[in-house]
Predict the 3D structure of the following.
Amino acid sequence: MTHILRVPQIDLTAVLADSNPSIDLKLQVYENSTRNFLKALTSYKNRAINTISERRKYQHAEKKKLHDRIHSSEAEINNCKLKEIELVADLEHEKEERKDAELSLAAFKRRLHTLQEKCATIGSDIDQYRAITDNLRREKDKERVILSTHASQVSPEVISCEAKLSCIIEGIEKDQLLIRFRNLDKQEPSREFSLVLDVSSPYYKVVTSSPHLMVLPILVDELNQHGDVYEFIKQVRMAYDELANT
């Protein structure tokens, strides 16, 4: 509550009537009032200074928070920009990979189409070869029947001749004759001597022989000179006979 200092009323007549006139100015009260005013003014000033200081500190703290927030936001923005650049680069890379994959897929499709056409052509060729094979097989079966018929007619005579000559001649591969001799070794009549004669060209040659015959190259050279296969077989038989009984 505000204290109001009331100014006292002065009775000038009474003062002048006094033998020693004086007026009480109440200086002590004034001084006390002035002192209290200055004290209140100082207190107000200090409170104002403290308030200003606290506000300044608060504003500084808020400013620092705002600065930190701005710095953090700028860092996040820069990070987002970097991520955006990376994402754009990844998208471009994926785009290139997708383009390459599409090109590879198109190339594979073309190759597949080409292979399918080749397979179709090969399948057609296979069918054609099967038809040819079936025709050849039928012709071969017919020839086999004919040969079996002829063989059944000449087989007894051939067997008789082979038994008397102790020599068996048969075809094994294309243009190759297997010639076998028996009853040459007196100690072991069942022992077999054989050779394979290749007659595929004008020049005869022996593919293999068992057992090995040293004079065989000479006999082959003589065969190529005179061309008499029967004479060659006779000479080979004589050479094996000499080899077996020497």
About this structure: The mean pLDDT is 84. The longest strand covers residues 176-181. The CA atoms of residues 93 and 99 lie 10 Å apart. The two ends are 164 Å apart (CA to CA).
